[in-house]
Amino acid sequence: MPESAPPLNRLPTFSGDGHLHVVIETAKGSPNKYAYTEAFNAFQFKMALPEGTSFPYDFGMVPSTKGADGDPLDILILLDAPAFPGCVLEARLVGVIEAEQRESDGTVERNDRLIGVAVKARTHAHIEALSDLRPGMLDEVEAFFGHYNQLAGRGFKVLGRGDAEAASILVRQGAEAFAEDQGQDRS
Predict the structure, then answer these.
(1) Total count of domains within the chain
(2) Is 54 helix (H, G, I), strand (E, B) or coil?
(3) Cβ(63)–Cβ(72) under 8 Å?
(4) What CA–CA distance (Å, rounded) separates 129 from 170?
(5) What digits encode the pLDDT tens for the residues 27-39?
(6) Which helix H or strand E contains 101, and what residues bound it?
(7) Closest CA to 116 of 68, 161, 164
(8) Which residues span the domain enclosing 171?
(9) Is residue 186, in this structure, part of any structural domain at all?
(10) Of 34, 102, 133, 179, which sits 20 to 30 A from 71 (CA to CA)?
């Protein structure tokens, strides 16, 4: 009998050639927020954004990682056209928005947003670092996440921005935290 595929949040973090695997949860332009739920092995509707608001870029998770908030690491993906929930692609990291999120109960936790470029993208193929992004783009993305979290009853505070190496360190730490949580050793 063939072995079944692992749930999407447990796919390998890295591809064979060292790129990052990403699972898209919410497509660019979507007015709805979706998140993968392992219990259902499906994408669950989380909330509708206000009229006229939509995700500025594809948004997803890095499988087999665990962030400070207990969820897989979040990643914003630059791609030529919107993907779809469940699409698995390879990406290269270009940076990170370092942020804190204040929950409605007052607890504060780190909830960074990695930024990556789809490996097979054409329009964004030249982007290797945050400095290659068009002027103002990161300010707009940070404002979107601030507004989006405010609507969900949370706060979102940008602490800083990091380069591709800082993002890579977060991914390695997230993969180690996931492996520890699963009782595995990744060394």
Answers:
(1) 1
(2) coil
(3) yes
(4) 16
(5) 999 999 999 999 9
(6) strand 88-102
(7) 164
(8) 8-179
(9) no
(10) 133
